[in-house]
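Work package 3, deliverable 3.1, input record:
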Amino acid sequence: MDIARISSDDQIQEILDWALAGGHSLSLQGNGSKAGIGRPVTADATLDLSGLTGVELYEHAELVMKAKAGTPISDIKALLDDGGQRLAFDPPDYGPLLGGEAGLGTLGGIFSCNLSGPSRIKAGSARDHLLGVSGFTGRGQTFQTGSRVMKNVTGYDLCKLVAGSYGTLVIATSLTFKVLPRPEKIRTLLLYGTTLEAAVPILRDGLSSMHDVAAATWLPSRIAAKSAIEYVSTPGASVLALKIEGPGPSVEFRCDAIRQMLAAYGKVEELHSHNSAEFWQFVGNVTAFSGVTTPVWKLSVPPANAVQILSRLEAETGEADFYLDWAGGLIWLQMAEDHTDGGAAQIRAALDGAGHATLIRGSVELRGNIEPFHPQPPAIRKLTERIKDAFDPENILNPGRMYPFSTSEGKT
Amino acid sequence: MLMPKPNQDVLAKRDYLVGELRKILRGPEAVIDDAADLRAFECDGLSAYRQLPMIAVLPSTVAEISEVLKFCAAEQVNVVPRGAGTSLSGGALPLADGVLLGLGKFNKILEIDYDNRCIVAQPGVTNLAITDAVRADGFYYAPDPSSQIACTIGGNVAENSGGVHCLKYGLTTHNLLGVEMVTMEGEIIRLGGKHLDAEGYDLLGVITGSEGLLGVITEVTVRILRSAEHISAQLIGFPSSEQAGECVGQIIAAGIIPAGMEMMDRYAIHAAEEFCHAGYPLDVAALLIVELDGPSVEIEYYSAEIEKIATRCGATVNRRSQNDEERHAFWAGRKAAFPAVGRISPDYMCMDGTIPRGQLPLVLARMTKLSKQYGLRVANVFHAGDGNLHPLILFDANKPGELEACEAFGADILRLCVEVGGVLTGEHGVGIEKRDLMGEMFSEDDLKQQQRLKCAFDPEGRLNPGKVFPILHRCAELGKMHVHNGELPFPNLPRF
């Protein structure tokens, strides 16, 4: 397969013309750190966008940045950090989880896959921070949507479609996004030894309190033991964690209030800034499941259903490993090897129609055999196919990455 | 404003359509065909444009909506969905040959779910009723458009409504978890639910703000938040708009995201003060209202910071609300700015562009020039935190030519917004009002691409045609591919 390293938008136009004229398909990638998510793509050429880098606009007081798609997230974070700002949706780094290196993710990758970390529950998702996109459609035409301002309802919000479309609709070359101030202080309160059943209402109460909880997770003892932070790993107990951030005096006040709330349930400990940052990276990057190759699932569910779903899966008694993020709204699940479908049927049945389950890690064979993305009802599938057809009628962009299209409107 | 030509074939079978619709909708007064009764629907919040619908229907079940849409699709009849009709851009303006689909009977809150921190409501429930339903338990729904007493949650989804608190808490799209909707083909679909993030293409995301062109919303699930412990408002006056603008930029640059940050110019301050005696200083050129929420220790902390910044920027007035009553008074003037301006002028038109905030002095100066050029006065209220500008152009519709001059002035303001890197509309929607200006912001190719999305949901273009897009293309024509150049094996690219 040809790999074309792109360094300008003109080259993309040239390749699209070639692809459309000859019926060739293209696989899009940055540094390939998330290539293992979704169905395996067979394409005639790979479009490597990792050379398309650079920050085009950063207006600190307007909370906005624009950069080329191949710009490494680590560069963006460093630049924002210098300006006392950050990406509030906590972009995760699944590199090590998927068997690769850390720190390779690009801007285009994080938005195309719409991946967000533990702070998503309060700050919103990657897609919520995406303000504008320019690039090309699969029709070989330039494409521009959104803008650089925070509030914009002019025309359809196509940024939402780009986010989470895994490069199947457009080739995004440049992205404009919202940035936010980095809080002065971050603290994490840890509560030890709660059961899963007890944890979910406590997470809910934390999030429903006046104390502006920024992230909320629960780790069974088996997962907590894998943390590099002693406060988390050594007690040998489950760990419920709530993140509090903001200006110093406010954080102190709210930590005290939360501490009092948690004290009724057991022993409470507090992580300061450095350990907090490391802890939430461990949660967001799913570090606990890295180093092996067994299937890993991401379940987005109504938080109050988490306990029931896990009990249906017999997760606590079986071979699977799991933990909760987003106050129970996100279940990370690592399956044992002995499922031919990676556990797909069992997991999706356990959801009982509410939420969705995505295979985040799986072998090429598994990803080709099952639906890594949650199966769609027929009416939604029809709309999905028509939208794909509207943006990429010849199915040349990442063909089959999300769904195999097989009707008259989509193409296999 | 030109609307699509009414289809004579459809008008000719009006009686037949009424008869058939009465078979689908059996409730009393569910199908309205009397001209006097139809008058109630002839316009929305953009009252300069009026049109009687051919027929209005008021269904009371989702199944009825589905049947009505299937029937209209089969009969090739256009449909305009309508909530409370508070749109300021003409999004719910009826069509002469169209069925107006009113959702007023869908006015129930279906579920309050504290475990999942959300509310499930029918689309005709008002925005304020959502907050009212959970207020006693200490919760609220964050987006709060000024029309929140009347506007419906379904309409909020259609317009992606904002409000004064969206700087910190986001727009409708950031607070919406799920919808049930009916497509023009009559299919009932559910997008999202009580969980986070779409799987597959984010259809929920594109439905939000689609102005009734993609489907009819029949149920809405939104996130509710815990009310803050304390709320405080600060009134800061400046001798010039430039200084006020500078202060807003410095507050945000200092890492503070207030719950709300509003600005009014001299004209708006005077009109508001005269109208509701909010206690605004009258000797300033620009006034900021900065709202902070959270524990009092946080409010104290930020408030002190903001005071320092304001002083540095040349503020001549700086007052903090001492209690809720005073805070409400500070806001009363701002929230009444539109009616206040309405009192001093026979008519006014409210514009809604967003600009990069740093461009404010330039935009205000150019607007003053335009005001002289057109001979029409303009008052400005401004969601300063996020750059959303609401110039109110004062005119008298009874004076020949003033409406046209006002429209031309408004269009110039919106062009100016785009010219400085902003957009045509921040929260009111395109509707018919800004439809013909879309070309200022989008290329022909980009407008066609947006319409291809419309084709995916509504291939025959039956839902709310004539809104948002200046030129309507047939879906078959949009679907064609054009390939330029020939087979070029990208000879100029490095390979590995």
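Confidence is low (pLDDT under 50) at residues 407-412 of chain A.
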